[in-house]
Amino acid sequence: MNDGVLAVEVGGKSISLDPKRDSHSDFTFVSHAHTDHLSLGKKKRNGSRKILASEATAVIANSRGHDLETPIATPEEYDLVDTGHILGSRGFLIPDELFYTGDISIRDRAFLKGVRPPKAKNLIVESTFARPEYVFPSLEQCIHETNELISKMYSRGIPLILMGYPLGKAQLLTEFFRHWDPLIVHESVHEMNSVYRQLGVPLKEGMSFSQARERGMFQRGVPWIMISPFMSRGAEFVKTMKSCCNAVTVGFTGWATRARFGQVMGLDYAIPLSDHCDCNELLEIVRHCNPEKVYTIHGFADYLAMRLRSLGYEAEALMWQNKRKGESPRQIRKKPVSKNQSLIDSYFN
């Protein structure tokens, strides 16, 4: 792993895994269409980059303005395994030898099915919520609490803005709360919901923001729910909705397990609903894979590796490497990590 590229080599062929820049690997694996897992480089003019990804990932990535080539047929020696993170998300598997999870969830959530990870000698596992303070309540509890809140606010004529990342979380919110009317969908979410429908997920159409505005719905005393991207209280959109409609904001993210998350983000309510595994579920993945060696990546990688070693596993944290002039390839220098980097990099999943 060097300069933002994690790669494995098997049988003389190299495969880069969610590289942040173009690499010289024989294959490039793209686990899903969130920006933090897509290459920052442009599509190669000669089309020589061989992409391993699901069709849904390619469609979603390109709908968001990324240049992702059409995936090739997966060679028979590899498998792409559904990871339940978002529509189209996949893990990379060399049967019995190696499993790279990308971002993963083992919980069933609406049209997404939780994954049962395969067994492999080597496991590369994400660690976004690897610390013990991140234990999520059940999906049923999150939905029940939100429905009770919506009912309470509707009885008072108060609308609610349900916030989540516009790719992945917002589509789940659209499905979970489709029985509430009127359902308004923020423009950025509306576009992504349309792509999901094209890919076969029958999401409720709802009203776009512009349609709701034309119908005069943004006034006090008119209850509705809106599916929206994450925004802080200081965002002009949120200030406008609170001023004209007295709207209540509800944020959905795994980071909501932090006691002060809602306060820091300026949310009225925060629900710990995530598209990742919590700390206990990450350990469950490791137990089920039963690997000889575990590599941790993305998030609290150092902590998870330490925890796994205490449980008897051989585990190592993979960190981005910078080579300085005069350093040997074995000398690794960690990039400085800001206090909020893990929060930002996760895009509130």
Describe this structure in words.
The chain contains ten helices and 16 strands. The protein has two domains: 6-133 and 276-345, Metallo-beta-lactamase, Chain A, CATH 3.60.15.10; 139-271, Rossmann fold. Strands 5-6-7-8-15-16 form a six-stranded mixed β-sheet, covered by helices on one side. A six-stranded parallel β-sheet has the order 11-10-12-9-13-14. The longest helix is centred in the middle third of the chain and has 16 residues, at 139-154. 26% of the residues lie in helices and 19% in strands. Helix 4 (187-198) links the parallel strand 10 (183-185) and strand 11 (207-208). The chain has helices at residues 55-63, 139-154, 169-176, 187-198, 209-214, 236-245, 261-265, 279-289, 301-310, 341-345, and strands at residues 6-10, 13-17, 27-29, 51-52, 79-82, 90-94, 96-100, 120-127, 160-163, 183-185, 207-208, 225-228, 248-252, 269-271, 293-299, 315-317. The chain is an alpha/beta fold and 349 residues long. The radius of gyration is 21 Å and the shape is globular.
Compact overview of the structure:
The chain is of the alpha/beta class. It has ten helices and 16 strands. The chain has helices spanning 55-63, 139-154, 169-176, 187-198, 209-214, 236-245, 261-265, 279-289, 301-310, 341-345, and strands spanning 6-10, 13-17, 27-29, 51-52, 79-82, 90-94, 96-100, 120-127, 160-163, 183-185, 207-208, 225-228, 248-252, 269-271, 293-299, 315-317.
